[in-house]
Amino acid sequence: MANVTQVKVPDIGDASGVDVIEVLVNVGDEIDVDDSLIVLETDKATMEVPSSEAGVVKSIELKVGDKVSEGDLILQLEASQASGDDASEDSADSNESNETEQTSEGSSTEDSSQQASSEAPSKKKSSGGSRTEAITIPDIGDSEGVDVIEVSVKEGDEVEQDDSLIVLETEKATMEVPSPFAGTIESITVKVGDKVSQGDQIGSMKVTDDADDGSEDESSGDSSGQQVEKETSVKDEPMPKSDYKPAPVTVEPYERREGEVIHASPAVRRLAREFGADLSKVKGSGRKNRILKEDVQSYIKFELSRPKATANTGAAASADLPEIDFTKFGEVEEKSLSRIQKISSVTLQRNWNLIPHVTQHDEADITELDNFRKSMKEEAAKEGVRLTPLAFIMKALVASLKAFPTFNSSLAADGETLILKKYFNIGVAVDTPDGLVVPVIRDVDKKSVYELATELGEMSEKARDKKLTAKDMQGSSMTISSLGGIGGTSFTPIVNWPDVAILGLSRNQVKPVWNGKDFEPRMMLPMSLSYDHRVIDGAVAARFIVHLGKMLADIRRTIL
Amino acid sequence: MSNLHAQVVVLGSGPGGYNAAFRAADLGMDVILIEKYDTLGGVCLNVGCIPSKALLHTAKVIDEAEEMSAHGVSFGKPKFDIDKIRDYKDGVIKQLTGGLAGMAKGRKVKTVQGYGKFTGANEIEVEHDGKKQKVTFDNAIIAAGSRVVDLPFLPEDDRIVDSTGALELREVPKHMLVIGGGIIGLEMATVYRALGAKITVVEMADQMIPAADKDVVKVLEKYVKGKYENILMETSVTKVDAKKDGLYVTFEGKNAPEKPQKFDMILSAVGRRPNGDLIDADKAGVEVTERGFINTDKQMRTNVPHIYAIGDIVGQPMLAHKATAESHVAAEVIAGKKHYFDPLTIPSVAYTDPEVAWVGLTEKEAKEQGVDYGVGKFPWAASGRAIGVDRKEGFTKLLFDKKNNRVIGGAIVGVNAGELIAEVGLAIEMGCDAEDIGLTIHAHPTLSESVSFAAEVYEGVCTDLPPQRKKK
């Protein structure tokens, strides 16, 4: 008996509506536990979603461009008797976050059998030189739940590509949904009055397409209980990365036509006045172009974020800075920024613009610490731990955070309240080939140096393997950015909002230090502490860095 | 001389003043309210809107009882106890002003009785019964209102009154002359006529209530024509001889009687003027115009940044509901809110019989401004409800911008027009177009239906009237 398992999106932190940017498997693929299935992109990083099960991919339930959240169905696996059992046992034992659907097995198979019967007729038709394509709602802007006001075709109709299939009415306009292909309508599953959103399937059609290859039909033919939509996912080659474009900024200053009246209710006018928003520049998204409160809010948000948007990568940047033809100076090569670079450029620009930064520099004497670490290195290695200075520095940093609670805080959105954190999670900036990511090590105060060193190693590996989830990169108290392995004497790290401070570490050096009698060789670690001056005063920051220096000079102090 | 200080001092306790004081107090400021009379409420509550409406109610019941005789119900000739009528009106005033005093107390707003005048940029001197008191302030809100315009040629005589005198209802004259065919004069004419006076109205302009559209006012004029003794349009009074047996009035103009006419009482209701000239505003540095107005910005701030002005004293229209809206803005701005006085429209209502109400642009104004407008007019003769109450003289008219079919104005004449106009005001503020109003289901049978019908007339889809010419 075929054992069908549903593989769902695991816990990906708080992120919801995350973009699917790559689908790595095809129907018919045989996959193992932990094989990457899809690649998601959050606002922090990209992550690969591993399979919780082993088996043969029976159907893929999403495609590039979809937005997914925890618990959404990714694909259905047909596990061979033996491997299926193994997989489910494995996952039950090892990973509590895996959604193997063991408990709801009965209901899910019931679902699929229902689908089987309802989809069966259309299935039969798809044999021969033609294929069946799902008809989905294309990009219709931000509109969700748009009314279907007309269905222009019925089953059996022959349509040309771009013929109107149904008519939608949004708040702004009516629009026709064009046929994506030429062919015969097999089914239309929406009716007038239904509400649809981008990506919703509204029916299917038979498309005669000679470029088709039969193998896919075969593979889908195995699984009679398969939805038409799933077949189309098979057709969709994983989209090349370079084709992916981030969603453009939707709010833009609106050029009102000559004589066009502003349509805004008294409360909206009041809101606009309060923020000094010029209503003539706000586009109304309400009925009959009425400007809604939300429109004013997004306009204000847009205006506030403008420096960020214009300093952003891509076309927007050229609005402020002139485009330069570099080829006239010599040979050049264009290379697009990595996805992570693009994302971090926005956050870095925002943080740099919005946070008044001050950087305090100091040196910590880590001679004793380094001697101790070296003396423990072998012992640690026996335990399988690679003992790095960073694990000790994290411990010292937590001791200083405890002494200076404002460093472990965030400024509330109203800018008037400080949120003091009672947890001690330290973010560690990790350089990966794709760019900078900041995984967070949790509860540093409760973990031993060994544990921290081990976890650091794991996190770095995860980062380099693109396995970090959004959750792995949230909830830091403060962040450490270490360039010690490379060099340099000091630098100005940018505060990793919502943190209020970041500790930058440069390469330690043995320096002659005056001990009152003579110069002594001491190992000195250069520290650069950037902080949000709205929250932290200069004097406090100086005290903090001195305190941290003391902790590092004698790590025993941290246990006092 | 004792000294008082408050964050906010409000000069005048009319609808503008008391609302400003209460709003400021609700926003956590300490407030002193200065009022020259011993009751709060200003003209509106004591000698204006409220007492006139109490008397108009009395008049309405008298008239309706009489109209009933045509429906087969006779009550006989009414007997008037003028003292009791006055008591009822005074009771209404007392209840409302007493309520205000209680609300002031509840908000810890300190009231200071006396005549307040500025003595400096942060100082008002209040005089009461010869005693003077200094009140200093961080912010002041001038809400000192307006007063009746006096006609210089009118002699001093008990029988010649202004609106305040008329509301005192000392007696009901046999023949009464109302100088001024504006809202106030016509409302008082309505009251005195119901109580038995023979009314003559004299107005310099060619229509009553000159601000309203002619077609609207015409309904009123037609309705009162048979009820009043005389209506003298485009005519003015040049001379009044106060003799023992009566007031002999000489007229001049288009409809002037040749000989002087004798009246038992004259109501002078030719308008109101702002009190900007009575409060020594210059001592605080506040500029007052020649006509006595104080100019403000849209946040009700005068040329002196911490002194605000609201209500009649800042300009037309001199209406309580405008003052109230301005009062909240002033108090909120003082409290640091970035609020503005930013209405699209302010409704006007004459509580005559029939009532006349309008909001937004009048046709007159639309023409002046060169707006390409269209009209939807629904005559109440086609309203079941209006016919049922035997008042089918009225109509509802809406003005639409032809470019986008949005409602830009409305006028209603008929019973309850003052209540009905509210919907049109909301429609204008919300930017409704004809379709929005027409598609909003109104209860049947009501007079309010006439608003949606008027919109349908504009659209050419009204089925409550004989077939219309197809639009466009």
Automatic annotation (TrEMBL), chain A:
Known partners and oligomeric status: Forms a 24-polypeptide structural core with octahedral symmetry.
Keyword Transferase: yes
Keywords recorded for this protein, A-Z: Acyltransferase, Lipoyl, Repeat, Transferase
Protein name: Acetyltransferase component of pyruvate dehydrogenase complex
Ranges of compositional bias, category Acidic residues: 86-99, 210-220
Keyword hit for Repeat: yes
Catalytic activity: N(6)-[(R)-dihydrolipoyl]-L-lysyl-[protein] + acetyl-CoA = N(6)-[(R)-S(8)-acetyldihydrolipoyl]-L-lysyl-[protein] + CoA
Co-factor requirement: (R)-lipoate
Organism lineage: Bacteria, Pseudomonadati, Pseudomonadota, Gammaproteobacteria, Kangiellales
Peripheral subunit-binding (PSBD) domain span: 263-300
EC number(s) per entry: 2.3.1.12
Organism of provenance: Kangiella taiwanensis
UniProtKB/TrEMBL annotation, chain B:
Residues annotated as signal peptide: none
Pfam family, one: Pyr_redox_dim
Keywords from the named record: Disulfide bond, FAD, Flavoprotein, NAD, Oxidoreductase, Redox-active center
Domain of life: Bacteria
Domain FAD/NAD(P)-binding: residue ranges: 7-326
Catalytic activity: N(6)-[(R)-dihydrolipoyl]-L-lysyl-[protein] + NAD(+) = N(6)-[(R)-lipoyl]-L-lysyl-[protein] + NADH + H(+)
Cofactor remark: Binds 1 FAD per subunit.
Annotated ranges, domain Pyridine nucleotide-disulphide oxidoreductase dimerisation: 346-452
Regions annotated as coiled coil: none
Cofactor(s) this protein cannot do without: FAD
EC number(s) per entry: 1.8.1.4
NCBIfam families: lipoamide_DH
Misc note: The active site is a redox-active disulfide bond.
Record protein name field: Dihydrolipoyl dehydrogenase
